[in-house]
Predict the 3D structure of the following.
Amino acid sequence: MSGSLVQHALLLSVALFTLGALGVFMRRNVITIFMCIELMLNAVNLAFVAFSRSLGTFDGQVLVFFVMTVAAAEAAVGLAIVIALHRHRDTLDIDSFNLLKW
Amino acid sequence: MPAVDLRPLLPALIVAVTALVVLLAQAFTPKGSRSPSMGLTVTGLAGALLLSLTMASDGRYGRGANTGGSVVADDFTLFFHVLLIGLALMAALLSPAYYRENGGDRGEYYSLMMFSLVGMLGLVSATEMISMFVALEIMSVALYALCGTRRDQVESQEAALKYFVTGAFASAFLLFGMALLYGLSGSTSLARVARGVATATPEQIPLAVLGCGLLIVGFGFKVASVPFHMWTPDVYEGAPTTVTALMAAGVKAASFGAFLRVFLGSLPTLREEWVPALAALAAITMVIGNLGALAQSNLKRMLAFSSVAHAGYLMTGMVGTTEASAQAILFYLVAYGAVNMGTFGLIASLSKGGREPLSLQDVAGLGARRPAIAASLTVFLISLTGIPISGGFVGKFYLFGAAVNAGYTGLAIIGVLMSVVSAYYYLRVVVAMYMREPEGEDVWSTPEAPGRLAALIAVAVTLGLGIWPAPVLDLARAAALSLL
């Protein structure tokens, strides 16, 4: 029973990760892109927890705590960068940030 | 429960404490008086460098020590520690003049630089995936902020945003790869992962291969290999030049350190699967990096594509998967680090009033006006091309040699051909410096003593490695042996 639960959790994790990755490419708003990246990180968290449960070791769950902490730090710096950029430009559209060519 | 041996963490701890001290000192410095940041930074980094050298000298001082199986101070770690702290030291020496000309010599800058260094030091010493991930993020998050330190400049903010988005995206891939390897082995320790992969059942092999692939994507972004390189030119161009120097030299070295530790150290049993993938990536990275550089007129962008190309050369060495290839990569990272720090450093120390010499017109006639600077730049560009008597030549010789020994002769031939192509865009700068008449007045600053010292060290290392490479090759070999 536990085996199939883990499989379902992993499938969900892969689906969420793919959605997040697609969103990063398809969305144009910086904040939405940022949310998509957070979705990817949380998909990975789900995979770690699922593996941790099926394997009975706790390394994965410990790693999840670190991922959450790091994601929070990353969000702080990332949003600060977005605000700094918004002071120069009155938009959050990623295509408009084209002073340097992609 | 045995006592935890904290010695492997000491160099990083010294750097972190120095970063906090600099931050505090800045807060207590009265407005208008001279900022103590650079002095404190250099002192702290020199202390950490001395400590690393002492540790490397003997087992009694912590060589080979191990913190709970998650951080080790083996020869490989200490080799990188000395290299990375040395590079940060040079970047710190170059910074005050650059920031005075471009606005705001602030304490935060030095602190962030050292926090990023803490991440790099952790990245090369981590033998466990949690520590490795946290170290990678410490390095990256500090760098995102560093890219945007020129708050008055839109380009700098834009570079920060692009680096942040691509960097965070890459981290997610790396993390998923780690999740799959954890699922296979039940542990985040690289040693256990290695055992888990070696004893994997046939059903588990696809999981391991997928994990490897995701890790290659993650590391590919960090070392700027094609097709994960698209952020590199923009970020290198937009970031403050001293930060670009640290990124090109330090981040590349630290990322390759972790790349080597994970793939050569822990996943050698899967080499049948990942070596061909890496060889293909190396080939397109060399081709696209060099062809991209041909088209650039901006020096910083040209060097960014050159950095992509060099990721390709380094990966060419990696397909060997023997200690000889690790040795070649370590040696080349030293040569490449010194050259990049020197080139970007000279550009930074010539900058005046917010402008830098970035086009061929800007450097035209530099040979007559500034003979010492032009000569140093020539040494660096010769080394980047891979012409004898420079460290770059010896490095490429060993890298391509490792690829040939592994049976990838074609890859080595692509590497050599692409080095010939690269001569065009590197030597174009030399020709402009010596053969063209200067245009307009000499508007650039004269490098100050700290900047000159950093450039001198870079020249000495570049020529030293070219003329007498044996000592560094021996150290790199010892480091490689401790990894495999």
Remarks:
- The radius of gyration of chain B is 21 Å.
- Chain B has a mean pLDDT of 91.
